[in-house]
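Hi, here's the filled form for the chain we discussed.

Project: internal
Contact: R.S.
Residues: 604
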Amino acid sequence: MGKTEFSKLTNSEFAIKCDGPQITSSNGILYERDNETLGPATYYVVDTERWAVSNVGYFSGPNNAWYTSSSLSQFTNTLDSELFQTARLSPSSLRYYGLGLENGNYTVSLRFAEIAFVNSNAWQSLGRHVFDIYIQGNLVLKDFDIQKEAGGASFVAVQKEYNNVQVSQNYLEIHLFWAGKGTCCVPQFTPTVSNSPPSSNKNRTGLIVGLVFGVGVVSFLAVFIVFYIVRRRKLPTNDDEELLGIDAKTFTFSYAELKTATEDFNPDNKLGEGGFGPVYKGTLNDGRVIAVKQLSVTSQQGKNQFLTEIATISAVQHRNLVKLYGCCIEGDKRLLVYEYLENKSLDQALFGKRTLNLDWSIRFDICLGVARGLAYLHEESRLQIVHRDVKASNILLDSNLIPKISDFGLAKLYDDKKTHISTRVAGTIGYLAPEYAMHRHLTEKADVFAFGVVALELVSGRPNSDSSLEEEKIYLLKWAWQLHENNCEVDLVDSKLSEFNEEEVKRLIGVSLLCTQASPTLRPSMLRVVAMLFGDIEVSAVTSRPGYLTDWKYDDITNVTGEGAADTSHFNSSTASTSIVGDVGNSLANASKPMIGDTIKQGR
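And the returned structure, exactly as it came back:
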């Protein structure tokens, strides 16, 4: 099982993710999907005819027609765990072909990880994947054992690279051949030994009575001990579902473990407070620094359903999304465990004390990273998630100032009777798309609108509304349109930027004005936004202001009290943004002025 890359020395390359959806790795390599059903003795040629895969199948034993395996574990020795969470099995013989290649020398990179035979006390863990690797018919690696190569550990990425592979007939063949070595399959055992006592003509009454009495006493003691242990553990009565079919150990944490990590949820470790609940910084025993979110949302979900939702969100991974390590479920406690981001949130970096130096190139890269993350959520992830609350405080920065979108996919953790899509609006004033605020119509285009606002904030270095400014500049979108209409877009640029790329500024502002059009159909998809930011396609011209800017008056302020607050997860917020979670559709539909909600509780 593994991932395959072909790269030609003359700049021609492509990569295959052996089973699973198409993804882009942390170093920018696009792995094409290989999730076709492969039964025994079958082959598949991709639509582009760039590559093909051929599978022989098992020599004997039960047949898994998909010949795939999956795991929700996090992998070490790689920045891209999602590459290995689904994998193509090589039960006996598996071949990959690069087709229509130019003749010449190539570099072939093969990536493997053991996920079928995991380290445990079970007898199945004794299995081993041992096989030979052939490239262009030549044996390049004999008796390759993935787990042995990884130091005896599962879930560890292993890479093998071969240079100067000769292609002379316009194709490349990679062959993984079991050849009768290692473990081809896991047998299923059925007990065949009878437990009946041996027959005898002699009278064994006394022996039988003694055995029955002894077994009865031992059974009673065993039941009593088990009952005592269960009572001592005080297991909850409202969450008694079994976690069937889920490898829970890979992404669940005990409450005691998280309590220790956060020093008993010490207020000094509190990072923020939001609509989903407080967030604390912690350190696990293995040294990982984490952000622990205590969910305060009302949920009627049972343990199994909740855990399934978290496992699903955990599987959505991208370099521009905050990584969810797992969760804790004990009694009525619901906690999420995220990676900790050193440089906290974008709104703090832009509008706070500005301890970080965000020059223009960094800001443009941040904008591009956010666009890529949203494009993945909308169109590349198999779940196709709409975030609903894209804003500067939900964009976090790692040590290298790479942006990561947080709090995606949490909508289903709410009570089903209060779903945001059907009855409630959840978001932040200033970032809300008009069709979502007014008509509760939620699509990915609501995220596109919010992205446009965030992009303008990156250009200007100011929040989307600021009542301390002169009247014409209070509302960022209105001011941006005024400058655009007067051909003065560059006047929007943050005065603290001593240098900037004027072409990139105009392109980014143009994209922002497209993203914030009143009609969702006029807004581009996030994939198209990425292409426009790269300069691969032209930015369409916008000629007139959206209706929500021309129809509303800005000479007054009306307060709306929301039921929730913006989530300042993983960071100490130094600024306040306005967030609402409530039924505001009718109010906004009749509004003649902008609506400002309650200020959130700020982080320390």
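Let me know if anything looks off before we file it.
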